[in-house]
Design goal:
- This protein is mainly α.
- Helix content is 69%, strand content 0%.
- The longest helix has 24 residues.
Protein backbone atom coordinates (compact mmCIF):
# COMPACT_ATOMS: atom_id res chain seq x y z
CA UNK A 1 0.00 0.00 0.00
CA UNK A 2 1.18 3.53 -0.81
CA UNK A 3 0.68 4.76 2.75
CA UNK A 4 2.92 2.02 4.13
CA UNK A 5 5.64 2.88 1.60
CA UNK A 6 5.51 6.57 2.48
CA UNK A 7 5.73 5.78 6.19
CA UNK A 8 8.67 3.46 5.52
CA UNK A 9 10.47 6.18 3.56
CA UNK A 10 9.75 8.72 6.31
CA UNK A 11 11.62 6.50 8.78
CA UNK A 12 14.71 7.06 6.65
CA UNK A 13 13.95 10.69 5.68
CA UNK A 14 11.73 12.10 8.47
CA UNK A 15 12.12 15.73 7.39
CA UNK A 16 11.45 15.24 3.68
CA UNK A 17 8.84 17.82 2.67
CA UNK A 18 7.30 15.83 -0.18
CA UNK A 19 7.07 12.60 1.80
CA UNK A 20 5.35 14.44 4.63
CA UNK A 21 3.02 16.11 2.13
CA UNK A 22 2.16 12.74 0.54
CA UNK A 23 1.52 11.24 3.98
CA UNK A 24 -0.82 14.09 4.92
CA UNK A 25 -2.59 13.95 1.56
CA UNK A 26 -3.01 10.18 1.75
CA UNK A 27 -4.44 10.36 5.25
CA UNK A 28 -6.83 13.17 4.32
CA UNK A 29 -8.07 11.21 1.31
CA UNK A 30 -9.84 9.03 3.88
CA UNK A 31 -11.71 12.09 5.30
CA UNK A 32 -10.81 11.36 8.93
CA UNK A 33 -12.70 12.93 11.80
CA UNK A 34 -10.99 16.04 13.14
CA UNK A 35 -10.57 14.39 16.54
CA UNK A 36 -9.04 11.22 15.09
CA UNK A 37 -5.40 10.20 15.29
CA UNK A 38 -5.29 10.04 11.46
CA UNK A 39 -6.28 13.72 11.21
CA UNK A 40 -3.75 14.70 13.87
CA UNK A 41 -1.02 12.73 12.08
CA UNK A 42 -1.97 14.36 8.77
CA UNK A 43 -1.82 17.80 10.38
CA UNK A 44 1.62 17.13 11.87
CA UNK A 45 2.90 15.88 8.52
CA UNK A 46 1.44 18.82 6.58
CA UNK A 47 2.86 21.37 9.01
CA UNK A 48 6.25 19.66 8.84
CA UNK A 49 6.11 19.75 5.03
CA UNK A 50 5.19 23.45 5.06
CA UNK A 51 8.03 24.21 7.44
CA UNK A 52 10.54 22.25 5.34
CA UNK A 53 9.38 23.70 2.00
CA UNK A 54 7.43 26.91 2.67
CA UNK A 55 7.25 27.83 -1.04
CA UNK A 56 5.43 24.60 -1.98
CA UNK A 57 1.93 25.92 -2.69
CA UNK A 58 0.15 22.52 -2.69
CA UNK A 59 0.96 21.95 0.99
CA UNK A 60 -0.62 25.29 1.89
CA UNK A 61 -3.69 24.38 -0.13
CA UNK A 62 -3.85 21.06 1.72
CA UNK A 63 -3.54 22.85 5.07
CA UNK A 64 -6.33 25.23 4.02
CA UNK A 65 -8.55 22.27 3.20
CA UNK A 66 -7.70 20.62 6.52
CA UNK A 67 -8.46 23.80 8.46
CA UNK A 68 -11.78 24.12 6.65
CA UNK A 69 -12.54 20.51 7.59
CA UNK A 70 -12.04 21.60 11.22
CA UNK A 71 -14.10 24.81 10.80
CA UNK A 72 -10.93 26.89 11.30
CA UNK A 73 -11.73 29.30 8.50
CA UNK A 74 -9.35 32.13 9.47
CA UNK A 75 -6.45 29.67 9.43
CA UNK A 76 -7.69 28.39 6.06
CA UNK A 77 -7.76 31.95 4.68
CA UNK A 78 -4.17 32.46 5.81
CA UNK A 79 -3.01 29.24 4.14
CA UNK A 80 -4.89 30.09 0.93
CA UNK A 81 -3.21 33.47 0.80
CA UNK A 82 0.18 31.81 1.30
CA UNK A 83 -0.52 29.29 -1.48
CA UNK A 84 -1.65 32.07 -3.82
CA UNK A 85 1.42 34.15 -3.03
CA UNK A 86 3.58 31.28 -4.35
CA UNK A 87 1.21 30.21 -7.15
CA UNK A 88 -1.35 32.86 -8.18
CA UNK A 89 -2.97 30.42 -10.61
CA UNK A 90 -3.74 27.81 -7.92
CA UNK A 91 -7.35 26.99 -8.68
CA UNK A 92 -7.80 24.91 -5.51
CA UNK A 93 -6.47 27.65 -3.23
CA UNK A 94 -8.69 30.22 -4.94
CA UNK A 95 -11.73 28.00 -4.44
CA UNK A 96 -10.87 27.29 -0.81
CA UNK A 97 -10.33 31.01 -0.18
CA UNK A 98 -13.74 31.78 -1.67
CA UNK A 99 -15.45 29.22 0.58
CA UNK A 100 -13.53 30.22 3.71
CA UNK A 101 -14.31 33.90 3.19
CA UNK A 102 -17.97 33.08 2.70
CA UNK A 103 -18.03 31.08 5.97
CA UNK A 104 -16.48 33.99 7.88
CA UNK A 105 -18.90 36.52 6.42
CA UNK A 106 -16.14 38.36 4.57
CA UNK A 107 -18.12 38.90 1.39
CA UNK A 108 -16.29 41.91 -0.04
CA UNK A 109 -13.93 39.84 -2.21
CA UNK A 110 -16.37 37.11 -3.24
CA UNK A 111 -17.43 38.58 -6.60
CA UNK A 112 -13.85 39.22 -7.71
CA UNK A 113 -12.74 35.80 -6.48
CA UNK A 114 -15.63 34.10 -8.29
CA UNK A 115 -14.60 35.80 -11.54
CA UNK A 116 -10.95 34.87 -10.95
CA UNK A 117 -11.93 31.26 -10.27
CA UNK A 118 -13.96 31.13 -13.50
CA UNK A 119 -10.97 32.47 -15.48
CA UNK A 120 -8.61 29.95 -13.83
CA UNK A 121 -11.03 27.12 -14.57
CA UNK A 122 -11.38 28.13 -18.23
CA UNK A 123 -7.60 28.37 -18.56
CA UNK A 124 -7.21 24.97 -16.94
CA UNK A 125 -9.73 23.39 -19.33
CA UNK A 126 -8.09 25.08 -22.32
CA UNK A 127 -4.66 23.86 -21.24
CA UNK A 128 -6.01 20.32 -20.80
CA UNK A 129 -7.66 20.38 -24.22
CA UNK A 130 -4.44 21.63 -25.81
CA UNK A 131 -2.49 18.89 -24.07
CA UNK A 132 -4.88 16.25 -25.34
CA UNK A 133 -4.89 17.60 -28.90
CA UNK A 134 -1.27 16.70 -29.54
CA UNK A 135 0.02 13.22 -30.06
CA UNK A 136 3.34 11.68 -30.85
CA UNK A 137 3.76 10.84 -34.52
CA UNK A 138 5.66 7.64 -35.01
CA UNK A 139 8.44 7.66 -37.67
CA UNK A 140 6.49 5.32 -39.98
CA UNK A 141 3.51 7.73 -39.81
CA UNK A 142 5.60 10.76 -40.78
CA UNK A 143 5.38 9.97 -44.45
CA UNK A 144 2.37 8.34 -45.98
CA UNK A 145 1.53 7.30 -49.52
CA UNK A 146 0.20 10.75 -50.50
CA UNK A 147 3.45 12.42 -49.49
CA UNK A 148 1.71 14.89 -47.17
CA UNK A 149 2.07 15.18 -43.44
CA UNK A 150 -0.54 13.42 -41.35
CA UNK A 151 -3.40 15.52 -39.98
CA UNK A 152 -3.07 16.48 -36.30
CA UNK A 153 -5.14 14.46 -33.90
CA UNK A 154 -8.41 16.08 -32.96
CA UNK A 155 -9.29 16.46 -29.27
Amino acid sequence: EALARVRSQLKVHPDDALLNYFLAQSLMNESPDVQSEAYQEAMRAALKAAQAKPDYAPVHDLLASMYMHANRYQDAISECNTALRYDPSDEGATYHLLIALKHTGQTGELAALSKRLAVLHRESLQHENERKSFRLIEPNEASNSSGRSPEPASP
